[in-house]
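Quick one, T. Sequence first:
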Amino acid sequence: MATNFPGSLDAFTNPSSSDTLDNPPHDQQHADVNDAVEALQAKVGVDGSAVTDSLDYKVANFTNKLGSGSAVRTFGTFAGGEVLQAAELNTVLPACMLPSTSVTLTTGTPTYVPFATESYDPLGWHSTTSNTSRITPTIAGWYLCNAYVNNINGAGTNMRGFIGIERSRAETVSRFDINNYAPDDFGTTGFVYLDGSTDYVEVVVAQYSGGNRTPTVKLSVVLVAR
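Structure tokens:
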């Protein structure tokens, strides 16, 4: 009989010690086993098999999708059929966090704060050499943005001022104003959709005290939904 494998399992007849060579036919039993072994070999596949149904091909391609662990994969960059290793899972948070940075604020002049370094920027959304006030995410989606200013008052006198988060200098994401009181630090938080290409986020700070102030400011952006 021809083998049924891999569609189904074969049911071979095992000869007993009392059977003759022609019952069951000895040559047919050899032929059946040969057919089954050949079917097994085809199913397993040779080394480097290009047959997509072979186990060798499937195992090799599964291993390739595991990768070397060097590529960064995030919520926004999963590819179909990919399997993530520890290195990808450990960098799964798409975010950029810029540290507390000192900035001189001239009274009455809103200032977009530049940042010379990053606390956390695994995807390279911030540049320390050009447009240093900007975070430009490369994944389209909804982002949670936080900005904070510290030690803006210093003198302890009443003053006016604000801190704001803006998208591409075209939309105010969130803003917190102070008017005639003496805070030392405050912040603002908001959600915004960014296109993953040209949209960017900045923090703008202003104070109206009649003199210069030198607070510290920090900014963070985190992808929360796509």
